[in-house]
Amino acid sequence: MYKIDLENISFGYEEENLIIPVIKDVHLSIKEGEFVSIIGPSGCGKSTLLSLLAGLNFPSYGKILLDNKEVTGTGNERGVVFQHYSLFPWMSARKNIIFGLQQLDKNRNQKDIEKIADEYLDLVGLKEVSHKYPSQLSGGMQQRVAIARAFAMDSDILLMDEPFSAVDAKNRMALQELLLDLWNNGKKKKTVVFVTHDVDEAVLLSDRIIVMSANSKSIKEEINVDFSRPRNRSILSKNNTYTELRHMLVQLLFDDLINGTESEVWEAS
Ligand SMILES: Nc1ncnc2c1ncn2[C@@H]1O[C@H](COP(=O)(O)OP(=O)(O)OP(=O)(O)O)[C@@H](O)[C@H]1O
């Protein structure tokens, strides 16, 4: 299991010898097995932060540590689920999961791999359509395959970038329940970093919500979500504390929108 430490990280994208800052001075520790959501207005750097955690980009300043070891690239202990399913279109649902497992360990027994793939396809309710290709599956089904693959690959850390935003409301609720089931009932509890725009989704899923600001390009607020688990969305929605928390989060997002953004650049070295 891994804890994650972001030590005062800043990051900017380079454009014509200048660096346009996207993230500034983010300092954050995430405990092993914690479910943390990151919310914030569009463009505040949520996806960029996730790409730094995934090791796809590197901080311009500061460090990211996994169990006190600096991140220097991608790694098998971190699985990623994106908004747009990221399945291989030329492989069946089952083959997508099998392929993921084969990439993790090329020497692993094929029968074991197939058993794990079938187990997870069953868990996400796709056993009957496991032979179908992504284009033959609905968006919700494709995202189930992506989640099944991520859990089958059994990384300790799961980085999820708006994984349910492309599916309709009913499927979104079903996928949220599925994710919570897999997270709660797995052999080991994964550390999840989950990017979302949806305040209700963040409250339902998270132990802690990190609110980012497009204005400061940093963390604006960290909020613990203390509701006991398992959580029931219809009971939660009638709870006064839930209503207050939701209102506070919406207000934080709204304040950021009306405060505008600073413009600043760094010299590229
Ligand atoms: N590859 C890139 N090159 C240059 N700028 C980029 C790149 N990717 C993102 N940006 C810029 O960085 C900023 C943060 O983008 P990012 O996608 O991380 O925000 P976000 O909070 O995830 O937004 P959204 O909620 O809309 O997905 C934006 O201003 C965006 O235009």
From TrEMBL:
Question: Which InterPro entries does the record match to this protein?
Answer: AAA+_ATPase, ABC_transporter-like_ATP-bd, ABC_transporter-like_CS, ABC_transporter_ATP-bind, P-loop_NTPase
Q: Which Gene3D superfamilies does the record cross-reference, listed alphabetically?
A: P-loop containing nucleotide triphosphate hydrolases
Q: Where is the ABC transporter domain?
A: 4-239
Recite the UniProt keywords alphabetically: ATP-binding, Nucleotide-binding, Transport
- The answer to whether UniProt assigns keyword Acetylation to this entry is no
Specify the domain of life of the species encoding this protein. Answer: Bacteria
What does UniProt give as the signal peptide span? Answer: none
Example of a GO MF term: ATP binding
The record ties this protein, via SMART domains, to: AAA
The protein here is known as NitT/TauT family transport system ATP-binding protein
